Amino acid sequence: MVVKSADGTEHTVKWTDKTTWEGAKATGEGIAEGTKVSVKYTEKGGEKAAVGIKTGAKATAKAVSQ
């Protein structure tokens, strides 16, 4: 998925079968576009893989696409 930080920077983060999420508005396969999210991820070889995604008022980024 792609998330946009508060400063407008877009980050591509892989969604894996180990990614956990809570409080999300599900679209069948993930989080609805435009949902505000906080993402915890690992980075290896320049690729970011989401470990946990949380939605809510204190979210720090915005889901752009999946």
Rg for CA atoms:
11 Å
Main sheet strand line-up: 1-2-5-4-6
The beta-strand count equals: 6
Total of helices:
0
Sequence of secondary-structure elements: EEEEEE
Name the average pLDDT.
Answer: 79
Q: In angstroms, what separates the terminal alpha carbons?
A: 4 Å
* Low-confidence sequence ranges: none
- Which percent range fits the helix content? under 10%
The description of the largest β-sheet is: 5 strands, mixed, barrel
Structural class estimated from helices and strands: mainly beta
Global geometry: globular
Residue fraction in strands: over 45%
Instruction: Work out the count of structural domains.
Output: 1
Please explain how this structure is put together:
With 66 residues, the protein is mainly beta. It has one domain. Helices cover 0% and strands 53% of the residues. The protein has no helices and six strands. Strands 1-2-5-4-6 form a five-stranded mixed β-barrel. The protein is globular and about 25 Å long. The model has no long low-confidence stretch (mean pLDDT 79).
